[in-house]
Specification:
Elements: H1 6-23, H2 26-33, E1 37-40, H3 45-49, E2 58-61, E3 77-81, H4 82-88, H5 93-111, H6 116-121
Parallel strand pairs: 1-3
Antiparallel strand pairs: 2-3
Helix pairs in contact: 1-5, 4-5
């Protein structure tokens, strides 16, 4: 598998998300694993039209645990934009792995109800 190919980036991302989930406190692991993680190259045209920057690294969609049930039209999920993460990491695999972890935990933090300030305080910005 060629480093930088989508298949390679996807394999590495799956590994890093799994490790990050396993490193969470036991009380959070089940909730973290219940949130689907979707992997895309970059934000699609619909996301960009909705105001998502083309170089966005990750995105949390849906309801956080702090929100009550609603009729939110988007299913709860985390999206990681692998090509953007790869380029942000300077095409360095070690840096890419770290960025996958940081971005995943950042988006997971939104699921747990944290805002940008909370995440920054935890080094997940």
């Amino acid at each position: 598998m060629q480093p930088g190919s989508f298949d390679h980036l996807l394999m590495v991302a799956h590994e890093e998300v799994s490790v990050a989930q396993g490193d969470l406190p036991a009380a959070l692991q089940s909730s973290a694993r219940s949130v689907p993680v979707t992997y895309e190259r970059q934000p699609n045209a619909g996301f960009v039209a909705d105001g998502i920057a083309p170089d966005t690294l990750g995105l949390f969609l849906g309801e956080s645990l702090a929100d009550g049930p609603s009729s939110h039209p988007q299913p709860t999920q985390i999206i990681l934009f692998l090509q953007n993460l790869w380029e942000f990491a300077g095409t360095d695999e070690a840096a890419y792995r770290e960025e996958i972890r940081i971005t995943y935990l950042h988006e997971l933090g939104h699921y747990f109800g944290m805002d940008e300030e909370d995440l920054e305080e935890r080094g997940l910005d």
